Amino acid sequence: MSYELKPWHEIPIGSIVPEPGSSRINHTGSWRMLRPVLNYDKCTHCLICWIFCPDDSIPVSSKERYETDFEYCKGCGICAVECPYDALEMVPEMEIKLQELE
Amino acid sequence: MATKKVVALTGNQAAAEAMRQINFDVAAVYPISPQTELMGFFAEYVANGEVDTDMVAVEGEHSAMAACIGAAAAGARTITASAGPGIAYMVENLYIASGMRLPIVLLDVNRALSAPLSIHCDHADSMLTRDTSWISLFAENAQEAYHHILMAVKISEKAMFPIIVNYDGYIVSHSIENVELLDDETVQNFVGPSGIHRIPYPLLDIDHPVTYGATAQPDYYTECKYQQHVDFLKVYDIVREVFDEFAEISGKKYDFIEEYQTEDAEYIGISMGSSFGTLKDAVDKLRAQGKKVGAVKITLFRPFPRKEIAKALSKAKGVVVLDRADSFDGIGGPLFKDVAASLSDSENKPLLHNFIYGLGGREVHEEEFMKAFERVERLEKGIDTRENLVEYLQVRE
User: Fold this and answer.
1) B386 phi and psi angles, rounded to 5 deg
2) What are phi and psi of A38, to 5 degrees?
């Protein structure tokens, strides 16, 4: 995460954020303990996960769900709970990291 | 000069009249004695269509302030009122309102805090607000309460800080006095039109969306608070400006403090709110006995008029600081510590002594204040000694 730190007198009054989209610079994916692992065989691309994702971390087109954006996904697991086809499994991030090391 | 009329009103009626004349956009309130009557009067104006105010009846004072924050951030001219425990319940949101730099008017009809439960006056409720970065004015009577509310709107919007107008519960709120009212048009011209663009980032300006109340991490929080700190110091000049403008329409010139017989005074008493009249009576009686005494009333409590206090006390030998709330900290009441700190750069170091009085609506009399002056004189002359810096003035032994 890197952004310019403003001096005190350049901060907008009331510490308001005048430009939308500031959440883009906060890569909240680093908070994640559990990763939603998608089983593409089960996924029907119904896009219910996309509707429920509170962090807008599921990129979609009009027909298709793509891999979760792990730069921002906090691993809350709502997608896995809401998926009607059990296509998402929450796997501890540590397990995945260890597998990657092997 | 405006047309004026003198009417017999209670403090609450005078405050409701000021609210009617200002015609706030939003009033979010929850009833609590002694404020209930005030909002009752105002609710009648709302019901009769005499104001355009959207009166929001919320489920508690925490919500009242939350609703005010939302309304003020949207761009509405906003007011609420409360007392005692209601103020206590609001405190979290008071910090949020000032941190977001929203102009909101809060009428604090001063009431004691529980326990034991008391609906009567002291200043403990207002002392909860002293570090919230709200501007704070103390009115002595119904006339001042009326005037302060009219000025509060303007001060708050110029400073972009919320503001509290304090007046003593029951003693001021429910007592009838002659109050000189300005005409509606004069008030409207003085406060100026409402409208969302009075503030820099109104949420109702939907073409320019902004975020209020975002998180600040350790890399930003200090800078946010420092900006608030610097801007709060600018409030002095803004208050002075509005006091001057108000003098032009009302003929009444307010100052941060009001001095009475201080010019040659050796001993000076300091108080806030309705007891100042009693303090002046005590001064008159002591003057008749040949004592050189005077009195100072604090009108602007936050930011604290430290320079004016230092100047008023620059020749005093002893100071009677009268607190209508205890701090229970082994030092003294809130006002005592503010006065003491105000003398940090003074060459003259008068003896300061603190007296707690008027708790939970206890009536005060000039004899008690005279006793306080006598005690300070004896301490200053070395006749008496003291173990503590603070003592209670009216305790039954």
Assistant:
1) -135, 145
2) -90, 130
Q: A17: nearest CA in chain B?
A: B211
Instruction: Confirm if B380 and B345 have CB atoms less than 8 A apart.
Output: no
Angle at CA B291, nearest 5°, toward B286 and B296? 70
Regarding whether B171 and B76 lie in a shared domain, the answer is yes
pLDDT of B258 higher than 90: yes
Residues in chain B within 8 Å Cβ distance of A9? 227, 230
Question: CA B33 to CA B37: how far, in whole Å?
Answer: 8
| Peptide bond connecting B124 to the previous residue in cis, omega within 30 degrees of 0 | no
Pick the CATH number of A29-101 from 3.40.50.300, 3.30.70.20, 1.20.1560.10, 3.40.630.30: 3.30.70.20
Which tokens belong to A90? 């929450």
How many whole angstroms separate alpha carbon B272 and alpha carbon B283?
15
Q: Walk along chain A (102 residues) and give the pLDDT tens digit of each residue.
A: 467 899 999 999 999 999 877 778 888 999 999 999 999 999 999 999 999 999 999 999 988 999 999 999 999 999 999 999 999 999 999 999 999 898
What span, in angstroms and rounded, lies between the C-alpha atoms of A81 and A65?
17
CA A13 to chain centre: 31
Average pLDDT, integer, range B196-224: 95
Q: Rounded mean pLDDT of B266-272?
A: 98
Choose, out of A5, A10, A15, A24, the residue to mutate when testing the contact with B (most B CBs < 10 Å): A15
Taking an 8 Å cut-off on Cβ atoms, the answer to whether A15 and B201 are in contact is no
ipTM of this complex: 0.89
Burial per residue of B218-227, b for 16 or more beta-carbon CB atoms within 10 angstroms, e otherwise: eebeebbeeb
Domain-wise residue ranges, chain A: 29-101
Q: Please name the residue that has the structure tokens 């300070």.
A: B376
Interface of A with B (CB under 8 A): 5-9, 11-18, 20, 22
**Chain B nearest-CA residue for A16:** B212
> What counts of helices (H) and strands (E) characterise chain B?
13, 15
Tokens of A102: 């092997």
DSSP state of B213: S
Query: Rg of chain B's alpha carbons, rounded to an integer?
Result: 21
Q: Provide the pLDDT for residue A93.
A: 95
| Range of the structural domain that residue B77 is part of | 4-250
Q: List chain B residues with CB under 8 Å of A7.
A: 223
What average pLDDT does the segment B227-250 reach? Answer: 98
Is B270 in contact with B263 (CB distance < 8 Å)? no
Q: Which residues in chain A touch residue B210, judged by CB atoms under 8 angstroms apart?
A: 12, 16-18
B217 touches chain A (CB under 8 A): no
Q: Look at chain B and report how many structural domains it folds into.
A: 2
In this complex, which of A7, A15, A22 lies closest to B99 when CB atoms are compared?
A15
